[in-house]
Amino acid sequence: SSFLSALLRHVILKDSSAVILDMEAGIEHLGRGTTRGIDLMLIVVEPGLRSIQTARRIVELGSEIGITSFAAVINKAGDSGSTGEELSVLGIPLLGIIPFDPLLVEADLKGVSPIDLGGVGVEQVMVMKDRILGEYFVRED
Fold it and tell me: What is the pTM of this model?
């Protein structure tokens, strides 16, 4: 939305601050300007051709508006080997894999934070968070 774009242009952060925006699925938000100036775009990919094609298109459109750093997360993964290989062919680094986790489904159904229930999915998200902070951003504590 235009409100979100304006807010993000004027927000003042410390150098060590991080802002995470969870955008809607697909490519529509790339045309709204809400993603301009971001440091890293994570693309959530589910196993399947359409999701991989969407990831490719997100990188293309994101590059056109000046986004230079992309990484993918495979979500609801069973055997994610071929999905990871396809991402590699497209030049999209794989940040991590979130396996299908019934606790994530349960948290959604109960309307609670997945962190409250834990599980392997949450553990993998925490690993990726640490990896993002360690590899993509320099933290000054």
Answer: 0.78
